[in-house]
Each structure stands twice: as structure tokens, then as C-alpha cells.
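Worked example 3 (structure in, sequence out).
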């Protein structure tokens, strides 16, 4: 492509509301390493959700598990329903270049993918891996969309992300972590969850969502996503909210799934939820977020940080099976990978990121994570292993409260982010404070982790934030 064409593409301002082909779910930039990233988008009919649509038919939560439950009125299509954002066929391409390049230097540094047709069988989404990136670099990215039968770019959206530095870099790294977001519990009706605006103001290097990104089955909040169509509807709805969409356009993300965004509460392989099957749930998650070959992975961020994101649903035993050496959440292959790679790492701080608690404490009635009695054997092995490593700690989600705890047997530290809004907080009590807790708060918010050096000594600062940015708790770990 000629340089003059590049100039036209990047300097011409396009209205996001002028054409039928839109990018209403924005861009997601995921799985960033020092030299690669996965770029995701979805082509939509409109730039924003349908805020004036028809209401869904109300059904009881107990009936949502049954097949063939009608929630869309007779004669109506999903696109006519409240908060829908319909996909449409089209083509997309991405351009990316290092931030700060201008004029002729910018033209020469721009790299562009070919035009790709979005996958109509995967909710009109598309994702592609770019592999020719430079470490520790802030990239600008632009997504362009057009109808399949058009040569005209109809919509364009700008964003950006930062790649991980190489293994020798000691530059500060900051990331944020959240869990549990439900559409009806957003704290800004028009814009979504305030937490995303607050996190963006901190300008983190990257972001981790530890799961329950949507709630297929949450009681009282219709519709229940017990079909593929309604599961996708919930993804489209939550990621069309302006605060979230603006955040993900600009910050690299890693996504982990949990039970509510796989199928239903405390679910495991082989189960169904209405007409939604377990395998369909696994597939929808991978189509809705940028994701590589495996849903468990490790990423190095400079000399002083390496993170491990584990998969807690794909390989697990049934929650109600008897505990013992064979009962597992991680599965044998993943567990071996985790132990071998964490032990081999020479990163100063090694951080295990889990959708669910490993240390806890949790409520006695729960039985789907390593802090519960039902998975005591594997939980003990995991805590013993983490406890044997220098400067290793756990970051988790799932629980609807913030905490920092310490396992009394192994000394392992765990930090839980808390849910994305105060409305979502609950299920525990500050009166339930135990000797394991050094911090406990029944509030929404997020966790911010900063890895930096002071007087050339590496340290990790962990801060629990409120939804609006107040620091509730801070703990600093000095590298041993």
C-alpha cells in the first residue's frame, strides 16, 4: 500500500454513527507478551446497545435450568430486545505502530493486517495474533471495518497497548485485577461500572479479569442465558458499556473464566443449563475474548515479575466426588506444567493468578475451590508448593469481598480483588474476620499490583482500591 493511502487512512476522521457497519463492542487486546498480542473485535449493526427495546419474558430462576424456556416474546427477534447489540457480517483489519512515531517515520513504522471476514458462526467476531512487536513498547492500534461487498472503510476505532519488557528490564510494572461483574449491578446506569474509569486513570501496563465476567444464571436478573443466543447477548451487552469499552480499547487484558461465564453456578463438565451445554459454554468464552491455544499460560513481565494464569474449569473433577489424590481442579497436565514452570522461573516475584481462592478462608457451604474442604488434598499440595518458593504469592477472584490472608501452615499470602461494584459485594461479614486475615472489607473495588525497585531492591506493592479510587489497604512485600 502506498504511503499516501496510509496518510488518508490514519488522518481521516470517521464518524462511528454514520454507517450500518459498526464496532459497538470495541477492541480487546489480549495475551500480550514481549513480542506478540492478540487483537479482537466484533462487527455490529449499531454503535451502541438498544436502550429502547422490548422487555424479556420473566421466568423463575428455578425454571431457567429447564430446556425450551421462552424468554423472547413470540414474533420478536433478539435485536428488538432491551440492551441488545446485534452483530452483522463484515470485514475488519488492524493497523499498529509504536506510539510517538509521526510523519514519515510513522508511515514507515505502520504495520497492517489483511482484510479478514468476521465469523458469523462465532457471533460476528474476529481475532488475530500479531507477532512482530518490540519489547517494552507502547503501541497504537486501529481497527477498521467495512461491509463485505464494499471497498469503503465504514468505521474505524483507535486504541493502544503496551508489550511486556524483556527479561532484563527492571522498569516498574503495574497491573490491576477484578472479578465478578453483573450488568444489573453496574453503578452508572448509562456508562457501566465506574471501576473501569478509575483503573484507566492509573494507566496500568495490563489488566486481569479473574472470571464471572458475565453471569449466565444469576438469580433475579433476566434474561437467564440458558441458550447460546442469550449467552452471547450477555457478552455483547456488558462490553458495549462505555466505561468498559473505553478501557479495553486502551489496556491489554488477560481473561480467566469461572463458573458463571462457563455455564452456571459451581458447574462442571457434562452439565447443562437449559439448552446451553458445557462445551458450548467453553466455546463461547474463547470466541468472546482474545485467547491463545491454551487457557492456562504464563507471561514474563521483565526481570522482577512473572504471572501464571490457571484454568479452573476445563479439567476439574465433579465438586461432589470424594476428596483424595485423584480429585482435581487443575488436572494432572496443567498441575505438572504449573509446578515445573514456576519452580524453573528466575523472576523475582512469581504470582499465581486463580479464578478462585486457594488460601481463603471461604464460606463452609462452598465446595468448588482449593480453600474448600472438598478439594483439601490438592489444595494442600498447591499451598505447600507455593510456600516453598521465594517471593511467590496468590491473586484470586470469585469472592464478593476484598481480603488479604495468610495460610497458617505454609505462610502463603493471598489477595482477593473483590467484585466490580459495591452493589455486588456480600456473602461474607467483617465480623467473620479470622486470624488468617490481615485485611477484610465487604466492598467492591479492585486490586492494583506494582512491581518496582527501591534502592535496587525489588518490591511488590499491593493496594486494594474502592470503586472510585480510594485506597482501602496496602501491603508491601520486599524481595528476599
Amino acid at each position: 500500500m502506498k504511503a499516501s493511502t496510509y496518510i488518508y487512512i490514519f488522518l481521516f476522521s470517521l464518524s462511528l454513527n454514520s454507517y450500518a457497519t459498526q464496532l459497538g463492542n470495541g477492541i480487546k487486546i489480549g495475551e500480550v507478551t514481549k513480542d506478540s498480542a492478540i487483537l479482537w473485535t466484533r462487527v455490529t449493526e449499531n454503535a451502541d446497545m438498544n436502550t429502547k427495546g422490548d422487555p424479556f419474558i420473566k421466568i423463575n430462576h428455578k425454571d431457567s435450568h429447564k430446556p425450551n424456556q421462552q424468554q423472547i416474546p413470540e414474533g420478536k427477534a433478539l435485536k428488538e430486545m432491551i440492551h441488545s447489540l446485534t452483530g452483522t457480517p463484515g470485514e475488519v483489519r488492524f493497523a499498529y505502530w509504536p506510539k510517538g512515531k509521526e510523519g514519515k517515520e510513522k508511515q514507515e513504522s505502520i504495520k497492517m493486517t489483511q482484510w479478514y471476514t468476521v465469523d458469523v458462526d462465532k457471533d460476528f467476531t474476529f481475532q488475530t495474533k500479531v507477532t512482530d512487536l518490540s519489547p517494552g513498547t507502547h503501541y497504537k492500534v486501529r481497527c477498521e471495518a467495512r461491509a463485505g461487498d464494499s471497498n469503503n472503510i465504514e468505521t474505524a476505532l483507535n486504541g493502544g497497548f503496551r508489550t511486556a519488557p524483556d527479561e532484563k528490564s527492571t522498569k516498574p510494572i503495574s497491573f490491576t485485577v477484578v472479578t465478578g461483574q453483573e450488568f444489573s449491578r453496574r453503578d452508572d446506569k448509562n456508562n457501566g461500572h465506574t471501576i473501569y474509569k478509575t483503573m484507566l486513570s492509573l494507566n496500568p501496563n495490563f489488566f486481569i479479569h479473574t472470571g464471572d465476567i458475565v453471569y449466565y444464571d444469576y438469580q433475579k436478573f433476566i434474561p437467564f442465558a440458558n441458550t447460546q443466543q442469550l449467552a452471547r447477548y450477555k457478552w455483547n451487552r456488558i462490553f458495549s458499556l462505555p466505561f468498559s469499552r473505553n478501557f479495553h480499547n486502551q489496556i491489554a487484558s488477560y481473561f480467566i473464566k469461572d463458573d458463571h461465564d462457563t455455564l452456571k453456578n459451581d458447574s462442571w463438565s457434562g452439565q447443562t443449563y437449559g439448552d446451553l451445554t458445557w462445551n458450548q459454554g467453553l466455546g463461547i468464552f474463547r470466541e468472546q475474548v482474545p485467547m491463545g491455544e491454551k487457557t492456562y499460560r504464563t507471561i514474563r513481565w521483565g526481570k522482577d515479575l512473572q504471572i501464571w494464569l490457571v484454568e479452573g474449569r476445563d479439567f476439574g473433577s465433579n465438586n461432589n466426588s470424594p476428596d483424595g489424590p485423584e480429585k482435581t481442579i487443575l488436572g494432572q497436565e496443567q498441575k505438572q506444567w504449573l509446578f515445573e514452570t514456576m519452580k524453573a522461573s528466575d523472576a523475582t516475584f512469581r504470582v499465581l493468578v486463580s479464578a478462585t481462592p486457594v488460601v481463603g478462608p471461604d464460606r463452609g457451604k462452598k465446595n468448588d475451590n482449593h480453600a474448600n474442604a472438598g478439594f483439601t488434598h490438592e489444595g494442600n499440595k498447591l499451598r505447600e508448593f507455593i510456600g516453598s518458593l521465594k517471593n511467590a504469592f496468590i491473586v484470586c477472584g470469585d469472592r464478593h469481598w476484598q481480603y488479604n490472608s495468610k495460610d497458617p501452615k505454609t505462610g502463603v499470602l493471598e489477595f482477593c480483588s473483590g467484585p466490580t461494584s459495591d452493589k455486588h459485594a456480600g456473602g461474607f461479614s467483617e465480623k467473620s474476620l479470622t486470624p488468617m486475615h490481615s485485611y477484610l472489607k465487604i466492598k467492591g473495588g479492585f486490586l492494583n499490583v506494582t512491581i518496582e525497585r527501591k534502592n535496587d531492591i525489588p518490591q511488590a506493592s499491593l493496594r486494594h482500591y474502592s470503586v472510585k479510587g480510594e485506597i482501602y489497604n496496602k501491603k508491601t512485600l520486599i524481595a528476599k
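Notes: The chain has eight helices and 23 strands. Residues 1-18 have pLDDT under 50 and may be disordered.
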